[in-house]
């Protein structure tokens, strides 16, 4: 038995029971066991047990779902007295189908001699054969020994057979004493349904209709996934059939399980020979001649082509209704393969591009060698480079207007793929200009949505950029003398002022204060891993990063990393890494113009948008609006930037990309004919995969359930596993949908969980686990604390300081890559399936067998539905990813920030307008041309949203008429401003003061919609109406 299975078995014993068939327990059994229980009918949860997890106050995040608002009061709820399964069945002849039901449970009686102890009575009924004729029937179960216990059967006919629901009902009504209720309660309830001879269990009809191209694609990819049963109160499970049957039986499950099969990034068998031959090794590609490059990379294309041929051969197995979709998939595969082959041809014909490719491979190999290994590209990584490099490096390429979207499961190596593209861009700019210096300035902008993700990716990007710089300096030899210029390849971090200092003075003043923004973001040398020194003698000096290790390839000159905004603007780093929110600053901060290279030989030519699925809803809408300004500014030289994105979870990607970036979309790798195999990504059943198990709060409060499950998992990690097996499951990563719930859980872990651990230990006769390291990973932590926390999470159980529990919100969903983490508890279904997939992918990475425990709230319909159909939707998680939306030119979005787009393009593209908002006839004419560009983009994105041109011209006319003296309202200044902070304007409105004429302008792209609290009442009183 694996360690993961042992932990699941321990959980079942602790939460369902029994420890032994004839056990005796030292407390009332409903206090000992959590679930698998059917209480007597109409038994309310007492109000005193309404233990809410959320704590008052929270953090004021208007977007988070409150436990208080989404869960009915416990006083209105009943403990479950029924559990059932719905399934489908058919018979071979005309007779009605028949099934055999096997029922088991346990009852507890007061001990005959010892007070406060309870004895278990095991109940296993004889199999019951039931004819599934349409209608409803009750079958008494007198053998259980409790009056009113019965089996309810309901049957409906449908085209392929019958749909049946069989429910075990505890209809007893004992006197309302605690002891009588315990005696009349069924524990460890279970039943199994098998088809009788001449009948068979079949697939339930699909409830998901295909309404768009994505639905049709998913219907093809997941056509082999089936739902055979769904639970009611409990969940349902089934096993693969034998002797030609689809399945043998369906059964109740109180801890349902599902496995997300691991994906091998090594791709299909067609690529295996390339790996063995060394053709995919970065070191090999870095040293190859042009002809050798063509040979290695052509072989990659040939292997993908061979896989494509296999797919075409499998078309005969596709059902007729799905054939058009299958052919569309194959057409897209052929298109992608064609682009890859043209990329190889371009390398053969373009010496600068081939040299940039070799140098990029040398840089990627160098940074991997610094980390103690060697880089062998995964087939999809090299395939993506071949797909995207030509349109990235050639501004006239027809695919320049297409976003290449790298769509690959979490943990597969997406970051390495596009860092290779960044390195290629950096070298190519220095090789193709009239002078190497023409390629100076920002070449690539990489954007993220979350601070934690940005921090971790900054560390990874620093290694790549420093490797490029070591090649430029010659401390890492490329084997030839190249003119790469005198300007270092460099990296800039451009994020919010809460994370990094906005100015040198702030950086100087904050030195040594871990609670304030620090320049020290990269703490270890990417080459030698020694501690870095941050030098800033005076508050007007730039912050210089140094490695002082003798012999280090990066020690003879400053590390080219900039984390203070003022230094970033001055240095114009090769790669700019920032959050999407920071781009709101292009409206108010004229220094940001330096980053966009307006008027220089080369503007930034590549934008990388990681975790694309996160840019949706209100954030996506405002980001798409600001992106209008960014794109127009970066296209000033007539060469729009190439945009590359990545995600593991998204639906209707084409619509979202068009709304955000005004680009077409090319997904890589494109899907094949099955979800299990896209050529470059293949499910591998030999790998452990990630196991999901579900638990319900039915009959319990969320707080009681959380502490019971948490205690059992931590108890099991110590006592159910050997010392060699413990490490992956020692640290419990607990995910919460809101800071309010997390705050309640923090108290719970410190008090109730420790008490339950002691009870479990006493029952098992072992020493209790002591919790000493309870941590939090949320937005309430400073940047320095987050970095330290990531380091602490890497500490193994056999080392001092290993973390017992870390409580996290959605901050953990992206960017946390700690290989040792194997255990996660998800408290409540996240709002989107994409969030669920991303969050749970934090555990079980690499060779660790991941275990995710989903704690689903029975009081919330969506949680309950997911629990009852747990096996179904975990067999095809990606099919249930919801579509996201972004509507940048909707009227409310235009009200909020359309003027900001106008101001940004005017300031950045009309030189005399940068510092002061004063008009001339020439600048007005130019502004009207820029308005035309904005209007044209709005028409391409959403032709139904009219009025954009009129609104922009009204704004321009108002600006000219008002004749403001400064752009941004300054405290204490009497100068008339054009704009003011939207937050300040909202504060003035809230206090009844006039906003003034200055346009309210967002400082951030978040919190764009104010919350509107409401109260639902049966009727309005007179004073409610007047108010």
Automatic annotation (TrEMBL):
Keyword presence, ATP-binding: yes
Alphabetic keyword roster: ATP-binding, Helicase, Hydrolase, Nucleotide-binding
Pfam families hit by this protein: Helicase_C
Positions of the Helicase C-terminal domain: 731-899
Disordered as annotated region, ranges: 51-81, 993-1027
Gene3D superfamilies noted in UniProt: P-loop containing nucleotide triphosphate hydrolases
Any one GO MF annotation of this record: helicase activity
This protein's name: DNA/RNA helicase
Lineage: Bacteria, Pseudomonadati, Pseudomonadota, Gammaproteobacteria, Lysobacterales
């Amino acid at each position: 038995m694996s360690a993961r299975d042992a932990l699941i078995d321990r959980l079942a014993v602790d939460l369902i029971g029994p420890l032994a068939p004839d056990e005796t327990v030292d407390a009332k059994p409903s206090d000992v066991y959590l679930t698998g229980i059917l209480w007597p009918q109409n038994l309310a949860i007492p109000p005193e047990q309404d233990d809410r997890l959320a704590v008052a106050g929270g953090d004021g995040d208007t977007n988070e779902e409150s436990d208080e608002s989404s869960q009915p009061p416990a006083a209105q709820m009943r403990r479950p007295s029924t559990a059932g399964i719905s399934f489908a069945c058919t018979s071979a002849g005309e007779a009605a189908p028949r099934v055999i039901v096997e029922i088991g449970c346990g009852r507890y009686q007061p001990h005959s001699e010892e007070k406060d102890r309870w004895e278990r009575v095991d109940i296993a009924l004889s199999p019951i054969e039931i004819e599934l004729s349409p209608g409803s029937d009750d079958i008494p179960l007198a053998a259980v020994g409790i009056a009113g216990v019965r089996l309810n059967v309901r049957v409906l006919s449908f085209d392929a057979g019958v749909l049946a629901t069989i429910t075990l009902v505890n209809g007893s009504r004992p006197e309302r004493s605690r002891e009588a209720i315990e005696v009349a309660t069924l524990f460890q309830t279970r039943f199994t349904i098998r088809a009788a001879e001449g009948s068979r269990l079949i697939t339930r009809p699909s409830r998901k209709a295909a309404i768009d191209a994505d639905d049709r694609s998913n219907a093809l990819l997941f056509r082999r996934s089936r739902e055979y049963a769904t639970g009611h109160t409990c969940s349902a499970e089934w096993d693969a059939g034998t002797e030609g049957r689809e399945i043998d039986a369906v059964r109740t499950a109180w801890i349902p399980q599902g496995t997300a099969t691991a994906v091998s990034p090594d791709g299909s068998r067609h690529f295996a020979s390339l790996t063995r031959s060394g053709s995919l090794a970065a070191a090999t590609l870095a040293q190859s001649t042009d002809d050798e490059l063509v040979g290695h990379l052509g072989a990659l294309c040939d292997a993908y082509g061979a896989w494509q041929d296999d797919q075409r051969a499998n078309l005969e197995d596709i059902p007729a209704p799905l054939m058009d979709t299958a052919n569309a998939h194959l057409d897209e595969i052929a298109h992608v393969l064609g682009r890859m082959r043209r990329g190889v041809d371009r390398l053969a014909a373009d010496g600068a591009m081939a040299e940039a490719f070799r140098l990029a491979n040398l840089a990627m190999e160098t940074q991997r060698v610094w980390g103690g290994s060697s880089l062998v590209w995964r087939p999809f990584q090299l395939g993506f480079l071949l797909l995207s490099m030509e349109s990235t490096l050639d501004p006239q390429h027809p695919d320049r207007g297409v976003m290449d979207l790298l769509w690959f499961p979490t943990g597969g190596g997406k970051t390495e793929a596009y860092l290779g593209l960044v390195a290629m861009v950096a070298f190519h700019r220095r090789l193709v200009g009239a002078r190497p210096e023409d390629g100076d300035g920002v070449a690539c902008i990489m954007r993220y949505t979350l601070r934690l993700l940005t921090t971790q990716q900054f560390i990874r990007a620093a290694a790549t950029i420093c490797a490029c710089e070591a090649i430029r300096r010659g401390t890492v030899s490329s084997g030839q003398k190249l003119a790469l210029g005198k300007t270092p390849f460099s990296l800039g971090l451009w994020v919010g002022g809460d994370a990094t200092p906005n100015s040198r003075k702030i950086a100087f003043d904050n030195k040594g204060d871990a609670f304030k923004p620090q320049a020290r973001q990269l703490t270890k040398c990417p080459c030698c891993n020694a501690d870095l020194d941050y030098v800033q003698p005076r508050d007007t000096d730039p912050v210089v990063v140094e490695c002082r290790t003798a012999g280090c390839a990066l020690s003879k000159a400053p590390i080219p990393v900039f984390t203070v905004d003022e230094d970033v603007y001055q240095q114009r780093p090769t790669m700019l890494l920032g959050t999407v929110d920071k781009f709101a600053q292009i409206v108010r901060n004229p220094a940001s113009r330096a980053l966009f290279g307006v008027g220089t030989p080369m503007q930034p030519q590549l934008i990388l948008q990681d975790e694309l699925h996160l840019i949706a809803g209100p954030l996506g809408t405002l980001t798409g609006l600001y992106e209008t300004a960014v794109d127009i500014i970066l296209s000033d030289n007539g060469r729009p930037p190439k945009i590359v994105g990545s995600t593991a979870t998204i639906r209707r990607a084409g619509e979202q990309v068009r709304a955000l970036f005004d680009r077409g979309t090319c997904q890589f790798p494109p899907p094949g004919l099955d979800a299990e195999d896209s050529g470059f990504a293949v499910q591998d059943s030999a790998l452990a995969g990630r196991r999901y198990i579900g638990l319900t709060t039915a009959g319990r409060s969320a707080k009681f359930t959380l502490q019971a499950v948490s205690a059992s998992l931590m108890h099991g990690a110590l006592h159910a596993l050997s010392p060699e097996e413990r490490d992956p499951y020692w640290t419990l990563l607990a995910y919460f949908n809101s800071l309010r719930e997390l705050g309640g859980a923090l108290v719970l872990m410190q008090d109730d969980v420790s008490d339950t651990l002691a009870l479990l230990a006493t029952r098992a006769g072992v020493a209790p686990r002591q919790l000493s390291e309870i941590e939090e990973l949320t937005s309430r932590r400073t940047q320095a604390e987050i970095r330290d926390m990531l380091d602490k999470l890497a500490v193994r159980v056999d080392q001092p300081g290993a973390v017992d529990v870390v409580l996290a919100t959605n901050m953990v969903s992206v960017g946390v890559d700690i290989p040792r983490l194997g255990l996660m508890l998800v408290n409540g279904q996240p709002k989107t399936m994409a969030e669920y997939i991303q969050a749970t992918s934090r555990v079980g990475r690499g060779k660790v067998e991941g275990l995710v425990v989903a704690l689903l709230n029975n009081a919330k319909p969506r949680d309950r539905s997911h629990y009852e159909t747990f096996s179904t939707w975990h067999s095809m998680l990606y099919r249930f990813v919801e579509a996201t939306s972004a509507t940048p030119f909707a009227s409310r979005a235009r009200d909020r920030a359309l003027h900001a787009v106008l101001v940004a393009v005017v300031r950045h593209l009309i030189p005399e307008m940068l510092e002061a908002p004063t008009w001339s006839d020439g600048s007005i004419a130019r502004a009207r041309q820029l308005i035309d560009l904005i209007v044209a983009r709005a028409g391409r994105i959403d032709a139904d949203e009219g009025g954009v041109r009129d609104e922009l011209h009204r704004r321009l006319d108002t600006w000219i008429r008002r004749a403001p003296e400064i752009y941004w309202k300054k405290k204490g200044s009497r100068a008339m401003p054009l704009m003011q902070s939207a937050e300040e304007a909202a504060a003035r409105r809230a206090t009844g003061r006039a906003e003034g004429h200055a346009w309210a302008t967002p400082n951030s792209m978040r919190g764009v919609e104010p919350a509107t609290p409401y109260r639902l009442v049966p009727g309005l009183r007179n004073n409610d109406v007047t108010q």
